[in-house]
Fold this sequence. Notes:
Structural class: alpha/beta
Low-confidence stretches: 8-27, 30-34
Strand content: 5-15%
Helix content: 25-40%
Radius of gyration: 20 Å
Largest sheet: 6 strands, mixed
Number of strands: 10
Number of helices: 7
Amino acid sequence: MDHQRASRRQAILKGLGKGGAVLAAASPLHSYATRNIVTTTGQQCTVSGNQSAAVSASAGTQQTCGAYHPRHFIAVSQSFSLTDNTGYNANQQAAFNALSGSAVPVGAEHWRADNLAVFIKTSATTMRRVARAGWPGTVAANATVVSVFPSAGTGGKSILAQLYDAWTSGPPPGETDLAYFLAAYLNAELGTPPPSFTAALPFDGPYVQTQYNTNYANALTFFKLVCVTDPVTRAFP
């Protein structure tokens, strides 16, 4: 999947000079390929394109872009007790030891030994296990929010924990502004569309980062428009 995404970008950028490649790092990739990737409302599938008139094209040439909802990217377990560890396996016991007690704040994270899932303290007496679902291989499961958006002001909180926080708040659940930007970033790095669409988002993660820093309000409107597929959080197996 990552190889396919890299090949797609390489093909788009092929033939550009050095200057073109530098510009492309902060530009939608489809600027160099086609104007016929559109949203469900008919605008070009970029932040600026979404503010413009609908694109006209010859019949059969347009592709419709789509992306996954923030809730698509996490799998959440049932609650585990922080007062009774009866029957816990080694991973659950390690999390119990790390998160129990009044000195540990709600929201604290304990990563499983393989760094593929995190236990989050959800109250004084409970914790949940959260794992990634359908993530791109370019983003580590334990990546922090500020590794993607340095000005987000979330400290060392992981992307998984941030998406979990959105899942428990809202409104509606999973749909905080930051969750949409994170979903847009994950979708852009994924580089493949949901099954019901014919085109992926025609830009990569750095484009989303640039929009967060320079065009927040317009980007948020656009990401809320396209990141709508599969708004269902998986149950942790």
